[in-house]
């Protein structure tokens, strides 16, 4: 397909406000079409190959947003709404970093949590029925964040649990499959429990806490759990046609079934966001890390020591997991050009966020690759090619 010129690009100093979604989009980055031509070819090809019907994407580099654009539509229908840079997506497991881990970072920075705190101290129900020698007694917040708690990976609680309380109780009662710290197992149940533990620390639902303490202060107006109903058709693409559980088109409500049973606000999934908002969060992290680029100032949210702590890889040896974040590994979805001092995460719905703390670069790609069903895995080819093309263009 031919590569057309980008529909928007905002070049803004680190910490400056981007245009609101309602304001006109102004091309402020000269040479975008030529510089990022390979990026557009990859994404156009991905739409043609039905990796996803459309996507929004953005790049932060040198202390400013250098690319922010979108291609394709909400679905494969010719009359479906076009995706814009401000389109709001279900970001799935980006929730783990943009909400849950970000909350843990700020609470740790303020001295309100210790990463070595046993989970059972905050959630006593986790210890019920476990003997004194049960490894569950040794599970800490650090273990949950590093995905090495010994808890299982994906558990389909929603098949039997019908209320938030019953699902949470089932999660509390899970037996460990390994000693804490001994094995990496990417665990949704671990982050469900982590979200609940942070609720206890904050004495407040974490959805409200992150809105007030993180999203509002740095200007992320489109980021929220349980978005307003009026957004559903006009600004949020659908994720799938659910033929087995909810038996309807899933749009404007969390796709993850466990998060839906919980009520839409969970530690592992449920967040909706946009490219401009996630670039703001990435900018705060880069400012705190000391490598935002020209015009950089101190982060209003994080301190450098916080970034250093949470970006450090955790045991066991060979794990790519930091504290809450992932880091580049062999055959990483971040491609071949992100440094080892990078942090990021993927989302099941087809979303990604990668931040190179050494180079001062952040890249966001949001899509609904699960439309109309979850069968396609083509995005696993798109992700590394897209990230490599971005880095080569810069």
Mean pLDDT: 91
Q: Classify the secondary structure makeup into a structural class.
A: alpha+beta
Proportion of strand residues: 5-15%
Gyration radius, rounded: 20 Å
**How does the major sheet shape up?**
5 strands, antiparallel
Biggest β-sheet: strands ordered side by side in the sheet: 2-1-10-9-8
Instruction: Write down the overall geometry.
Output: globular
Distance between the termini: 23 Å
Give the % helix. Answer: 25-40%
Query: Using DSSP, what is the number of strands?
Result: 10
Q: Which ranges are low-confidence, i.e. pLDDT below 50, for 5 or more consecutive residues?
A: 1-13, 15-30
Q: Note the run of SSEs as H and E.
A: HHEEEHHHHHHEHEEHEHHEEEH
Number of helical stretches of at least 4 residues: 13
């Amino acid at each position: 397909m031919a590569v057309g010129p980008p529909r928007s690009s905002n070049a803004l100093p680190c910490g400056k406000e981007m245009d609101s979604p309602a304001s006109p989009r102004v091309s402020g980055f000269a040479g975008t079409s030529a510089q990022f031509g390979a990026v557009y070819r990859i994404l156009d090809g991905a739409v043609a190959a039905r990796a996803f019907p459309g996507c929004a994407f953005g790049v932060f580099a040198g202390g400013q947003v250098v690319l922010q654009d979108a291609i394709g539509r909400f679905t494969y229908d010719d009359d479906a709404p076009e995706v814009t840079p401000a389109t709001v997506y279900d970001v799935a497991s980006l929730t783990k970093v943009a909400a849950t881990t970000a909350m843990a970072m700020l609470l740790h920075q303020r001295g309100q949590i210790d990463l070595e705190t046993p989970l059972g101290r905050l959630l006593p129900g986790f210890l019920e029925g476990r003997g004194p020698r049960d490894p569950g007694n040794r599970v800490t917040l650090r273990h949950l964040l590093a995905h090495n708690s010994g808890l299982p990976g994906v558990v389909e609680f929603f098949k039997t649990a019908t209320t938030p309380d019953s699902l949470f109780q089932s999660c509390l009662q899970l037996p460990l499959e390994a000693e804490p710290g001994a094995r990496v197992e990417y665990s949704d149940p671990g982050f469900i429990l982590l979200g609940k533990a942070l609720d206890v620390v904050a004495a407040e639902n974490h959805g409200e806490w992150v809105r007030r303490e993180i999203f509002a202060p740095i200007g992320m107006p489109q980021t929220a759990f349980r978005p307003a109903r009026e957004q559903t058709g006009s600004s949020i693409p659908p994720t799938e046609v659910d033929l087995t559980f909810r038996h309807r088109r899933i749009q404007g409500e969390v796709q993850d079934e466990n998060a839906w049973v919980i009520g839409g606000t969970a530690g592992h999934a449920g967040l909706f966001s946009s490219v401009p908002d996630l670039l703001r969060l990435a900018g705060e992290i880069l400012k705190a890390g000391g490598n935002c680029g020209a015009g950089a100032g101190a982060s209003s949210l994080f301190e450098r020591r916080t970034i250093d702590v949470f970006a450090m890889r955790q045991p066991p040896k060979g794990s790519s997991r930091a504290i809450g974040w992932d880091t580049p590994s062999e055959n990483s979805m971040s491609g071949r050009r992100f440094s080892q001092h990078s942090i990021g995460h993927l989302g099941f719905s087809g979303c990604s966020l990668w931040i190179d703390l050494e180079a001062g670069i952040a890249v966001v790609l949001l899509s609904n690759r699960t439309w109309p069903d979850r069968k396609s895995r083509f995005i696993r080819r798109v992700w590394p090619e897209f990230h490599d093309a971005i880095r080569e263009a810069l």
